[in-house]
Amino acid sequence: MAPPIRVRRPTCEQERVRPRARPTRASCEGTSPRGPPQRAPRVCEEESSCAKSGRRHALSLCVFSSFSPQFLWGVRSERTLAAPVGSLRAPTARERAAIKDGLSQVSKGKAPVLLRLVFHDAGTFDRETGRGGPNGSVRFELDRPESRGLKRGLKVVGDVKESIAAKGKVDLSYADLIVVLGAWAVEVCGGPRMDVLIGRIDASEPDAENMIPDENLPAQGIKESFARMGLDTLDLVALSGSHALGGKGYGDPLTFDNVYYKTLLEKPWLSQDSMKQMIGIPSDRVLPDDLECRPIIEKYASSQAAFFADFASSYAKITTLGYSS
User: Fold this and answer.
1) Short-list 295, 85, 102, 308, CA closest to 201
2) Looking at the domain assignment, is residue 311 inside a domain?
3) 120 catalytic, yes or no?
4) Which residues does residue 118 pair with via DSSP β-bridges, in sequence order?
5) DSSP single-letter state for residue 146
6) Residue 286 in contact with residue 222, Cβ under 8 Å?
7) d(Cα 77, Cα 143) in Å, to the nearest integer?
8) 99, 120 in Cβ contact below 8 A?
9) Has residue 122 been placed in a domain?
10) Does residue 164 contact residue 157 with C-beta atoms inside 8 Å?
11) Catalytic residue among 116, 120, 139, 228
12) For position 299, which CATH number holds?
């Protein structure tokens, strides 16, 4: 009796898959010069063979690498993103000790302005050019309208810098210390503890003007400003929680909690009470009516733990813009 005939399925090398074509500007706008859409590429069914040859992973890269970061962000641009300007690292034990000693001299009352200083320094970043970001350039931007009141915070940064250099023989950049003091401000007011990387390079001149989102922008305009930095809507809503500090009407001005989000849902500025009408700023008031922002606001209003976790993640993102770690 003749042996049975075995039918072998094609391996990945036999079943070659042609990468999907890169989307064109026309296809992004709704018209395709290539006719009907192509069928999605088949994935080899012989998984063990794929794993040995590495073709399964290569296939995934072929499919997803056809979409540029600009496409994913909805930006119709062929410009490539700027490369990181440097890498960051964890502080050494000696640096941590010097930082701890320097922070012990700062009063809790300075927390609101120190946290605000972080966002005004980092908020100038442009992900396409790689310019701006957490580079200490805010030192040269104090005469700008959006920088009003930041001089007090910068003096604290300078004092801490001098102290740790004299006592601990540690020289940290202004950019690093702004981020460190911002994280300290959150923690000392009851917020999450956040580890901070160091190694940022100080700028020697101011960043471009009109990069900080205007507080009178509509929600869509604010989201576009964050997208320019490489941040998304969740980052926007999470980082806006920093407005809990500083006496804008969101509970105790020196307590970092989720009262900010509960207040946004209540919309006290619509009240007949003239005092309640003063709560918040325009950029806060537009968020609850935005379809993307509202579910996140509701999530944080019901869970302070969720807010703390996302804030820590978004803080790490905005304070490392332009750097690799």
Assistant:
1) 85
2) yes
3) yes
4) none
5) G
6) yes
7) 34
8) no
9) no
10) no
11) 120
12) 1.10.420.10
CB 106 within 8 A of CB 99: no
State the Cα–Cα distance between residues 120 and 213, nearest whole angstrom.
Answer: 10
Range of the structural domain that residue 262 is part of: 219-315
Q: Is residue 23 part of a domain?
A: no
Q: Which amino acid is at 264?
A: L
Residue type, 168: G
What is the spatial distance between Cα 121 and Cα 212, in angstroms, rounded to a whole number?
9
Q: Counting beta carbons within 10 angstroms of the beta carbon of residue 319, is it exposed (0 to 12), middle (13 to 18) or buried (19 or more)?
A: buried
323 - beta bridge partners?
A: 86
Task: State the Cα–Cα distance between residues 154 and 50, nearest whole angstrom.
Answer: 57
Residues in the chain: 325
Domain count, the chain: 1
Neighbours of 317 (CB within 10 A): 17
Residue 324 contacts residue 300 (beta carbons within 8 Å) = no
What six digits make up the tokens of 62? 């072929």
Instruction: For residue 46, give the nearest of 56, 59, 37 by alpha carbon.
Output: 56
- In three-state form (DSSP H/G/I as H, E/B as E, the rest C), the secondary structure along 221-275 is HHHHHHHHHCCCHHHHHHHHHHHHCCCCCCCCCCCCCCHHHHHHHHCHHHCCCCC
In a domain, 105, yes or no: no
What pTM did the predictor assign?
0.75
pLDDT in tens, the chain (325 residues): 444 444 344 444 444 334 444 444 344 344 444 344 444 433 333 333 333 333 333 323 232 232 223 222 233 233 345 667 779 999 999 999 999 999 999 999 999 999 999 999 999 999 999 999 999 999 999 999 999 999 999 999 999 999 999 988 999 999 999 999 999 999 999 999 999 999 999 999 999 999 999 999 999 999 999 999 999 999 999 999 999 999 889 999 999 999 999 999 999 999 999 999 999 999 999 999 999 999 999 999 999 999 999 999 999 999 999 997 6
Residue type, 285: R
Q: What one-character-per-residue DSSP string does 15-77 give? A: S--PPPPPPPHHHHTT--TT-SPPPPPPPPS-HHHHHHHTHHHHHHHHHHTTS-HHHHTT---
E strand map for the chain: 86-87, 323-324
